[in-house]
Amino acid sequence: MTPRSEIHDRLAASLREARKTRGLSLDAVARLSGVSRSMVSQIERGESSPTVATLWNLTQALQVDFAGLLEGRPRPGIEIVRAEAAPIIAGRGHGLIIRILSPAEAVGEHEVYDLSFGVGGGLVSDPHSPGCRESLTVISGNLRVISGEEESRLGPGDTARYPADRNHEIHAMDGAARAILIVQDS
User: What is the pTM of this model?
Assistant: First the structure.
């Protein structure tokens, strides 16, 4: 077997397994990804070499890790994501960098973020799904958290748990701050 066919086989199996695990039809994946049904089917059968853009669209639709797609089934043991490899969302809020700590498959269920606020930085969020809650733990600095009409101030080591199914905000006070945010859907 050539290395190319092994890669196609692993890619096909990983995408097919991800689709079936999520209970999605070929049509549903096509709608979610913008990739035609026939192309999805050909990729899953190992009959087509998708472009990087096509693979990206499929992994986003299936909520699977793009980088680990060819690794096959997860191996038992310790999975390491080096600091420089963690996905980052910059500029989401004024003076804020968000590092994504949770795996891609946890999106929408249990998400973990490392928040680094610059001076005056903040994160303003629209309501999440009904029943969604957030837990915010301050590592350094001081933060103000607002959930609906309620407001609290937090210092290092403090944790706030609050409803996130309403408008909510987090703001740095008195300088830079850092926190861990856990978003848990009901």
Answer: 0.60
